[in-house]
TrEMBL record:
One of its GO terms (cellular component) is centrosome. Keywords: Cytoplasm. GO terms for biological process: B cell homeostasis; cortical cytoskeleton organization; microtubule cytoskeleton organization; positive regulation of B cell differentiation; regulation of dephosphorylation; T cell homeostasis. This is P2R3C phosphatase. It is found in: Cytoplasm.
């Protein structure tokens, strides 16, 4: 059984070996590959403990960052309340609608996480044959729930 110091030394030795291998080990006459960004990284093998741990940790950090960007229930309820408050009359059947001016007002008062959804491009994407140039509040809300 190895002591803690021996394990740390072994880990540092592996790290140094891989670092040198990746950064300095590839010498070739043709250097055109240095201009092309690398898009594939092989998965670490089972015996590459350090690389496995690094991959797991980076994935966990990535997922945490993405989950912080998601809207929680309270933020979704507030968004629905704001959309409903700024709806533009007349209603189309049972469906509440909103025009671009009110859409931008909601975007200004909504939480910062929602700002990414209040763009002209998204409004135009959801705009259908409404004679008053409005979009459905329900369609927009469903869009936010799917994308956010």
């Amino acid at each position: 059984r190895k002591s803690e110091q021996e394990l740390k030394d072994e880990e540092m030795e592996l790290f140094t070996k891989y670092y040198v291998e990746w950064k300095g080990g590839r010498k070739s006459g043709n250097t055109s590959y240095t201009n092309i960004p690398r898009f594939y990284y092989r998965l670490p093998a089972e015996d590459e403990v350090l690389l496995q741990k690094l991959r797991e940790e980076s994935r966990a950090v990535f997922l945490q960052r993405k989950s912080r960007e998601l809207l929680d229930n309270e933020e979704l309820q507030n968004l629905w309340f704001l959309l409903d408050k700024h709806q533009t009359l007349p209603m189309t059947g049972e469906e509440a609608m909103i025009n671009y001016e009110n859409f931008l007002k909601v975007g200004e008062t909504a939480v910062p996480k929602c700002k990414q959804f209040f763009t002209a491009k998204i409004f135009a994407k959801l705009l259908h044959n409404d004679p008053y140039g409005r979009i459905s509040i329900m369609q927009f809300f469903n869009y936010v729930m799917r994308k956010g």
